[in-house]
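Much of what follows relies on a compact textual record of a protein's fold. The record below shows the convention in full:
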Amino acid sequence: MKAPVLFILFVGSALGKSTRGTAAFTVTYSEAAQNGPYKMFTDYAPDLSEYDYDNAIKSVYQTGMWVYYENVQYNQQPGRVYWVHGIEITADFSSDYSYMASSLKFVGSPEIMDADGFTVFEGTAFTGSEFYSESDAADLGPLTRKGSSIVITGTSPWTFYSDNYWSGRHMCLFPNIHDEGANGEVLNFGMYPNVEDIGIMDNSIAQCGKAAGSRARSRPSHSRPSHSRPSHSRPSHSRPSTGGRMEPGESWSLKQLGRVWEILTRRYSYTCPCSLLYHVFLSLPHDFFLFWQDLCPARRTRASGVAAPRQKTDSARTRGRTMKGVALILLLVGVAVGGPVTQVFSGAALSGVSHIFSSYASDLSNYDFDNTISSVSQTGMWIYYENVDYNRLPGKVYWVHGIEIAAAFPIAYSNISSSLKYVGSPDLYQDTWTVYEGSLFTGSERYGTGSTTSIEKRGSSIILTGTSPWTFYDEEGWTGSGVCVYPDTDVDFGDAGEVLSFGIYPDIQGIGITDNSIASVKMGCWSKNVVRAEPLEAEHRGRNGAWGILEP
C-alpha cells in the first residue's frame, strides 16, 4: 500500500503546486523509515484515537510544517512536542518521541503553504488554541493578549503590537527559515516557541500588522479554535512592475485624503474634526503657533480670549516663521499620505534658510541651494551627494532614513551637497527594489515594484523598501545564479505605529553578487543563497531612524 499512497501524494502535490508553495500533507507511519501501517492527514487531528492512531507515530513523510503533540487538543495539558517542516521530507522520530503523539496539526495556509500569514498560539511551543490570519488583524479574537508563541509563514515580516491602534510596545518578526524543493518550490518560516525569548511580553499581543503595510487596508480576521477545521486561504499576488514615479504636480486622490484623515485620527485619538485639528494645532512647535499668529491675528485674539493689538514683527523673522510653519504642515501631510519629503536647512539644528523637496534634484544650483545644506528634517530615505547628477563623478555621500527625523550633518559633510534623491516609491510602504549604477547608490538607477525579466547589467549597489524579499539573477528570465536579499538591515518606527523597512547594500560584491551582473529580478525568495546583511555603520541610530556617511 505504501507505493499507491506515495503515487497519490505525488499527483496531489503536483496538482496543488503554485509559485508560492504546495499544499500541506503528512503520511504518518508506525515504524521507522516509513514502514508499517500508516495514516494520511491533510487537516487538523485533535485526537488521534478517533483515527485508531493514538501513540502510533514513529516516522513521517510530509510537506509543510506539522506539529505532533503528546496530548490531545494540541497539548491543552502540558506535554512534549515534535515538529517537522520541509518539502516532501522524511523524518524518523527520536526514541524519546516515538509512539507519543496524540494530536497533530499543520501550520499556516491549508492550500498554499508559503502564503504570507502568521499564527499566534495560546501556549509556548505552539500549543493550545490559535489565531491565524493572512492580513492585518485589529484584534486576535479570543486570543487577544493571550498568546505565548508564534509561527510566521511566507516571505513577509509582521509587526506585533501590545495596544490598539497599532501602538504600544511592538516587535517586527521576520521569517528566518527557508526550505527548497527539488522543483524549485520554496517554503519560508519564522518559528518563535516562546515570545518572551524575543522581547515580547507573554500574553501581551493585541494586534498584528503586515510590516510596513497600510493599516487602512486591514480586514478583520477570525480566530481558528483548536478543534475547528481551518478556513481556506486566499493566495497573495505580487504587484506588477512599474517604471514611473509620481510627479510633483500630480493631485491627491480622495483615497489619499482619506489616508490623511485616518492616520491623524489614529495618532490623536479624535474623531471630531474640530477637536482633532485643535489637538494637532496644539501639538506643533512654537514656530507654527507664531506662524498661525502671523496669518490669522483675529482668530488668535478670539482663541486666547485676550483683546490686544497685534505687535509689529520683523519681516525677516516673519518670513522665517512662515517657512517653518509651511514646512511643518507639508511634513505632517507628507507623512500621512505616505510620501517621502525632506526640508533642508542652511544652518545647524534646523535653522537658517530652508527648502522643501518631495522629488529628485539632480543639481541643487537650480534651486539656489548648492553647497548649502547643514541639517534636514525628513520622512523616508534620502541620499545627499557631493556632486551633481547623484555623484556621477566620485564624491561623498550622506544618507538619512526615518520617520519625522531631524539630522545635523557633520562639519565635513555640511555645505557640500549638490544633488539629492529619495529611495523607493512615492508610497513609502510599497515593496520596491532599486539597483544603482555605481557603488554607494550613485549614478543612474533602475527601479521597480514587481518582477522584471531583463535589466541592463550595470548595477553595483542595491536598496530595498517594504517587506518583500527579492531574488537577483545573473541571467535574464530569472535564470542562472540567484541571490535572495531581504529588506531587513534597517527598520524605523513612527509614533503612530508607522513602520519603514529597508535593505541597504552599498556594494553588492559584499553580499556575494558579482559587480554589474544583475540581469533579472523576481519578487520573493527563490534561492537557497539568502543574504542577511548587518545595518550600515551610522553616525546616529534611533527608534525612528538613522543617518551616516559613505566615502568613495
